[in-house]
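Question (not urgent): is this output format expected?
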Amino acid sequence: MFEELYELIDGVKSLDNADAFDYAMEIEECQDEAIRLNTNEQLFLKGVLADGTSTGSYSQKTIPLKKKKGLPYDHVTFFDTGRLHSNWGIDRSHGEITLHAPKNDYRGKQGNLRDELLSIYGDFEGLTPESTSSLAEFITPKVSEYFLNTVLW
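Got this back:
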């Protein structure tokens, strides 16, 4: 009788928040959500960098081009053809994630577009506190699943 209780207690003692986060972030839909929050919510819709600062404004020359394409023009979106917003990756390391844009979009003498944008704007690859909260809410069911599996199995 007490053996099952001791096993349950051992299961509770073994819970680790970082492990639970890693478990959730191994799931493709959770990775996709983190990337969506960075590329679509922050950059495209709101025009904010990872630290929450503005991406800035387009030049008067660029605004008509953005309008013609039906794209936002009141802030820099990092979106023109969509290539930079696709094929992002995530690195996971014990309770933390690092988002990174694709490095294969070459252009001009500056090398790839990702590096060029990093040099101009700073860190655009990462989640703001607001996006981090949204991701936490999104992955909560998977984190709960991890805790239940750890304690009960």
